[in-house]
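Morning!

As promised:
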Amino acid sequence: MSATPIRTEAPATDPSSAPHPFDEAIRLEALADGRFRGATHAGFWNQVGPFGGITAAVMLNSVMLRPERLGDPLSLTVNFAGPVREGGFSVEPRLLRSNRSSQHWAIELVQGPQRELAASALLVSAVRRDTFALTEATPPPAPPAAECARTRHRSNVTWLDRYDMRYLRGRPLHENEDSVTHLWVADLPERPLDFASLAAICDVFFPRLYLRRPKFVPIGTVSLNVYFHQPAATLARNGARHLLASAQGRVASAGFFDQEGQIWSDARELLATTHQIVWFRE
Amino acid sequence: MSATPIRTEAPATDPSSAPHPFDEAIRLEALADGRFRGATHAGFWNQVGPFGGITAAVMLNSVMLRPERLGDPLSLTVNFAGPVREGGFSVEPRLLRSNRSSQHWAIELVQGPQRELAASALLVSAVRRDTFALTEATPPPAPPAAECARTRHRSNVTWLDRYDMRYLRGRPLHENEDSVTHLWVADLPERPLDFASLAAICDVFFPRLYLRRPKFVPIGTVSLNVYFHQPAATLARNGARHLLASAQGRVASAGFFDQEGQIWSDARELLATTHQIVWFRE
């Protein structure tokens, strides 16, 4: 036997068998009464709470996990009532009404012994049909994602490391002429697109105010709205390829500013339109 | 006495003392437990139920009437779960969370002994503050409302008679090159603007699909979203003057189409941005 310390190799693991951080973050444990237990994830932390997009994804996921859920998500509104604190939470989807081909859900995310409400949401799911289709919006001009460089950031918030973002237009904390932003975005590491990850990606944009003023101020999304325009099969077809995203603010006034955004597939299908209204400190 | 039948004059009434049809339609009677009783109004009828805008206004009004309500409406999402039937209904606002300067509300509109849900809503109210302000959107080009002719309609739905609409761009049931619509709009008879009437006006646009196809098909708004960008004083300043409204659809796909809209004051302040997603039958 040699006196040399033996350097044990870590057991060879298949990286594909390790859970993806996004799946870890939206993981929910079903409780007896249709509610779910989840927990915040250190990898999706923002300044004073989780990335809003991951909270939206967790709330959407609770409906996806309910066995009586009908069709695909069509419309999602998440109102952020207060910061989600680090640790466990309860996600409580309630089926308000079920029609022949659509359902109306309300979802609450509560924490602590006082059951403090952190976020409330409304979701409509619907069976999508093959119909007349027309896209009036146009995707932003962009070279293929593979030809664009990943944008590096100098922030200590962890959620930014969960996305490969390749900014094409819009420089934050500068006085741009307008707030228009274009970027390629994908989960990091790569992950096939689904409704939960698409909902989260609707919230990846820099705050619109930062595109018009070179001044950092605290901000917080109050309400996030997402309309899903394609069935699950179209999302699956995109796989893990980058999405082309654009956003613009229309107005800042009396303590709040807005944002409108569009999320396009790699094949230039309009997957989602999204809107939010955001509080800011002067 | 003469045998000639006496033609009695109707008693002279002050027209300003008669309730405005909009106020009649959103009138709510407070019940003991924070709920309200209201009823549909024949003057705001659409094809198979009330005009969606008046339902949104009634739900917003229920929060305005709650004594603990804080600040002005900031964000309103109304999900239409099924047709509102003619007759009475119960509007049930629930305060989910009250913060220092904002509140989160959920509202349900239910009907009948089975308490069937017709619409559910989320509303955020907030105390508005004087802050940095910037409007990046631009109002549509338009001559003064007084120089534009009122658009006559040939429809038997009654709610269209509750608005003075002066269309400037966008001809319904024609194959327009795009779905962009511009119009002047005001309550008829005239009525000073408030949050309830502004919410209703967010839903006055022709369905976007009708701007791209010369084909009438049944449609129904599934979810309506409104962001209010100005405090009550700005709305009051507009008084009964016409509002300048614009709308555009981005996409129709798999049984649903969307709409984005902006509502500007006569003085060209952006009062509200609005979004909806609408079901259509092929």
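The two ends of chain A are 70 Å apart (CA to CA).

Hope this helps with the figure draft.
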